[in-house]
Amino acid sequence: MRATTYKCDRCGEDIKYPDEQVWNIAVGIACEPDVVAHSIYSNCGAAQWCRSCTEEFRLVPRSPKLPGLPEPPPKFEDLVREIVREEIQDERKE
Question: How far apart are CA 41 and CA 48, in angstroms?
Fold first, then answer.
């Protein structure tokens, strides 16, 4: 897979697309409440920002901080192996 590197127009951070998100930021106006100006949908005058800059200006919700994942429970095979090892060690001690 190919990766393209963009530079955030606000902070200058390198953004490696598609691993990281690139956000096109533009300002538009609306003449009526239901009509949106066409310039919003074009890249004319748009800036490309990184995720952290868009979060800082609250244009997108902040990424949730996920707590560390709990350790997975041992597999059945591992439990059986451990029991067998303990039995073998007990037999050798006797």
Answer: 14
The span from the CA of 42 to the CA of 90, in Å, is 75
Q: 41-78, pLDDT tens digit by residue?
A: 555 677 889 888 998 988 888 877 767 778 889 999 99
Mean pLDDT, residues 70-90: 91
- CA 70 → CA 15, 37, 67, 76, 81, distances in Å? 31, 49, 9, 18, 23
Neighbours of 22 (CB within 10 A): 17
Specify the 3-state DSSP secondary structure of 26.
Answer: coil
Cis ω for the linkage preceding 67 (within 30 of 0):
no
